[in-house]
Amino acid sequence: MDVLDGFRHGEAPGRNGQRRGTIDQCAKSRSCRAIPRRASAVFTLGWTVYAIYLPRLAASVGIAGTAVIFILMLDQAIFTITDFAMGVCRR
Q1: b/e per residue, 60-77, with b = 16+ CB within 10 A?
Q2: How many Cβ atoms from other residues are within 10 Å of residue 29's Cβ?
Q3: How far is CA 21 from CA 5, 8, 16, 49, 89, in A?
Q4: β-strand partners of 89
Q5: Residue 4 vs residue 68, higher pLDDT
Q6: How much is the average pLDDT of 64-83?
Q7: How many other CB atoms are found less than 10 A from the CB of residue 52?
Q8: Positive or negative CA dihedral for 29, 30, 32, 36?
Q9: What is the mean pLDDT of the chain?
Q10: DSSP 7
Q11: CA-CA distance, 40 to 52, in Å (whole number)?
Q12: Residue 45's pLDDT is what?
């Protein structure tokens, strides 16, 4: 007899032994696909606004406009390092 005792692969038991939907159904539904898309759009738009207004913000506190490109490059370098580190730590 199979260890899963009648449950199909990818399916989890519900209450009272009833079968729930498969785990893959969430990945295929519109709401589960829309959430990461919206989050990605919010982060992308936020970073774009930050990059557009950073020169004006830097000038208002006395930082030269030529330094802004280095600030943005440092920002991206930090992001790359931390993103890589999170991927390595997750394993």
Answers
A1: eeeeeeeebeeeeeeeee
A2: 11
A3: 17, 11, 15, 41, 31
A4: none
A5: 68
A6: 92
A7: 9
A8: positive
A9: 78
A10: P
A11: 18
A12: 95
Residue type, 35: I
* Residue 23 predicted with pLDDT over 90: no
Phi, psi of 65 (to 5 degrees): -65, -25
Q: What is the mean pLDDT of residues 35-47?
A: 90
Q: Tokens for 23?
A: 């785990």
Read off the tokens for 83: 């993103």
CA distance 84 to 27: 25
Q: Which two tokens stand for residue 78?
A: 């930090």
User: Are the CB atoms for 55 and 65 separated by under 8 Å?
Assistant: yes
Report DSSP letters for 31-51, one per residue: HHHHHHHHHHHHHHHHHHHHH
Q: Is the pLDDT of residue 84 over 70?
A: yes
Per the structure block, which two tokens stand in for 81? Answer: 């390092």
